[in-house]
Amino acid sequence: MKRGTRPWATLLAVLAVVVSTLLSGCSETGGSRDTASGGPGKGRWQPRPGLAWQWQLDGKVDAAAADVPVYDIDGFENDAEDVARLHRAGRKVICYINVGAWENYRPDKDAFPPSVLGGPNGWQGERWLDIRRISLLRPIMERRFDMCRKKGFDAVEPDLVEGYADDTGFPLTAQDQLRYNRMIAGIAHDRGLAVGLKNDLSQIPQLVDTFDFAVNEQCAQYDECARLTPFIEAGKAVFHVEYTEPTDRFCPESRRLGLSSMRKKLELGIWRRAC
């Protein structure tokens, strides 16, 4: 670069930063929504450790059930107005989508070829997916994440992303799971959505940089919560739930580790008891 052009380049760079800052400030629809992310965000939402949350997958969301900055709700059973109502209350909203199993009660159930359907996963009407068949599953998941984006969700919680460790009916490997999970994260990021790593503790070292937060079930019951520390150290929230452990047994450790912990009933209705 010629010496004489540096002042102009510097001025242009400063102007670019100012314009970028102004535009990013306009991307949020109110300061109250920044509360959940710990401050004004640039690009996709990045939930920070310690955020309180509500997890309701049973039916339509009850927006008044909990005064917390983050709601995680079913992507199919809630519409754009449900999401907008939560946003107006200053909340971020996560879209629950099952990416590891076929569900016979979803409206897109016929989109899954029979060849990708494996054994039952223990939940009525569900069967594991052959996650090696990326060319078949990717378009389906893209349409599902498109739905989340169009409804206005801020993030996605993809469920059942550790099938390689279960009896799925397919010879899945850890490498198969890593490839599929990274694909899922990429689909979310391409749509401007944050994405959480659900359980899959063994692969946290390989995936913590790829995912924006974690969602965990029962790490206290199995004495595994410390394995989620890489997310906390990276400044990423860990949304954690227990079903049977008393709160006085797991909450002190959850607070020490920086987890966003609560107790829920297994059906994941509106009831919650937070740490």
UniProtKB/TrEMBL annotation:
Source organism of the structure: Streptomyces californicus
Signal peptide, first to last residue: 1-24
Pfam family, one: Glyco_hydro_114
Domain Glycoside-hydrolase family GH114 TIM-barrel: 53-268
Biased composition (Polar residues): 26-35
Name under which the protein is recorded: Endo alpha-1,4 polygalactosaminidase
Keywords for this protein: Plasmid, Signal
Region (Disordered): 25-45
SUPFAM superfamilies according to UniProt: (Trans)glycosidases
